[in-house]
Amino acid sequence: MKTSFFLILTQILIFSYCLPLTAQDNAQIGLPEGAIARLGKGSLGIIHFSPDGSKLAVSTSIGIWFHDPETGKELELLQRPNIRYPYAFAFSPDGNTIAIGVREKKKKSSGSTRYSVALWNFTTREAKEMSLGHLHNVRSIAFSSDGVYVASVGGFANIGRLWNTQTGENISIKRMHSKGVSLVLPSLDGPTFATVGYDKAAYLWDGKTGNHKLTLPEHAEQVSSVAYSPDGKNIATGSRDGTIQLWDTTTGNHKATFTSDKESTRLIVYSPDGRTIVSGTVNGDMEIIDTQTMQLKTTFTGHSNRIRSIAYSPDGNTIASASRDETVRLWDAATGETKAILTGYHRINTAAYSPDGTTIATGSKNNKVRLWDAKTAKIKNTFTASTGYGRITKVTYSPDGKTIAVARPFSTVFLLDAQTGKRKGTLKHFGLIDEIFNVIQDREYDITALMYSPDSSTLVTGLDCYTHEKGTVILWNTKTGRRKRTLFKGAGGVRDVVFSENGEKIIATGDWSKKTRVWDAKAGKELRTIPTDIPSSSSKLSYSPDGTKTAHVEQNGTVIIRKRDATSQKE
């Protein structure tokens, strides 16, 4: 009996998540020791060209990828495990150093986390962490034009840090904006930094003392971006009010206005010759604006979602754009033609093998289900689970391989045809009245466990109400979409569920009380409760159907695949 129960518990650690990669991109550079593949390249941050134009750098949740700016080919991966969203980084003017926003390795005596900046040297391959003590993730970093000073800003804390990289002198700039600061940008001809935040104005600061120099008058809505002209005489501000305003950097006087028909201007950048401003919009279009007339010249289209970052190559021939659609595009600046599309930048939350082991299904934060070839790690198909933008918390195959169950936040499960992605059914855990009650009571649920019975007729879901520390286990009829019964509802968020091989028992495990519960699948009667100490990451581990490989969904949103050693295979 002990042996059989051990095998069942082993299934719990086996049955959950797995792997992804990209058809066009190679994510195998810089694999961890013992890994045979990496699926996914991490969630997308921002982009910069190196000062000499030889590389395009793309920041992600696992570090910074360097690409050939003409072909898009991966050249190198700078792995920084403590990099944190929004993955801010900046090149020094000479290109020898990269400053990266990170989480500090040591917590404060109070136990709270602080965030800082690490300087990474290309020559020595060494990183030096500056102890700056930002209260929130570093939102933006900038070097001064001479490379001596670095400025960093940390979000809603409304504090900027300015330090001398040669002497280590650190200056704290407080009360930069009324509602926090999100972006810092250096002037190109002197020690001045410009900042924008969550209010309607832009500010200029002395890059050596941190003293306030100038406030640019307010827009009608939040200022979301700022850009210096190459000659340093003008500064442009882009706002959610749909306008780009041009200002004199010495006096702060207003010079010109461009009004977009895209409702909101999120990002702006000057061309190296100063004749053009590129504006990234919320719908993914890129507007090309003549700076002499402040009129629209043309629009580049191709992205399907909001632009997150834009960069001009130093020679002005290429524009790179990163979008919320999880792609980076390289554009011919003169013609607007797409030169290359870089993909693979998505955060994977969950993965599952198909019953025959040939396919792996993954779910990401952008509501996408991707099917990967388990041998080649190339994408076979991509489905959209439902309308709207949201994350997928769990996926699993039916034992016959015909259906993929997809769990979304707010306690909804979609049943998708495994071949076409067409929706076959929807399981809703709460009705409208229940949803209203949950909002009033501040109850937020995630489906953290999902499993089919061996005959595919029943689906069991495990819920975690993390705001109230409660968990639920529910059985569903997969043909009718109706609830069969609620097995459990009580303290402890359920992390994993699994059926016994004959389908007679359901085992739910990993609640906050560190207990494993066993239920009669037909009668719904609890058979036993066993104290366990299963790690919280156990549901992230999956075994291939033949038992020869393991796949683990990493905290950075990628999947690492390893071969199982001979000893573990015998256990």
**In the CATH classification, which architecture of the domain at 2-17 and 346-564 applies?**
7 Propeller
Spatial extent as radius of gyration: 26 Å
What distance separates the N and C termini? 16 Å
Q: What is the global morphology? A: elongated
- What profile does the largest beta sheet have? 4 strands, antiparallel
Any idea of the CATH topology of the domain at 2-17 and 346-564?
Methylamine Dehydrogenase, Chain H
Structural class: mainly beta
- Strand runs, count: 48
- CATH class (first level) name of the domain at 2-17 and 346-564: Mainly Beta
Mean pLDDT level? 81
DSSP helical segment count: 3
Q: What's the layout of helices and strands?
A:
Layout (H helix, E strand, L loop, with lengths): L1 H13 L20 E5 L4 E6 L6 E5 L2 E5 L6 E6 L9 E3 L5 E7 L11 E7 L5 E8 L5 E4 L5 E5 L5 E6 L5 E5 L6 E6 L5 E6 L4 E5 L5 E5 L6 E6 L5 E6 L3 E6 L5 E6 L5 E6 L5 E6 L4 E5 L4 E6 L6 E6 L5 E6 L4 E5 L5 E5 L5 E6 L5 E6 L3 E6 L5 E6 L9 E4 L5 E6 L3 E6 L5 E6 L3 H9 L4 E8 L5 E8 L4 E8 L5 E9 L4 E4 L5 E5 L5 E6 L5 E6 L9 E3 L5 E5 L5 E5 L2 H5 L1
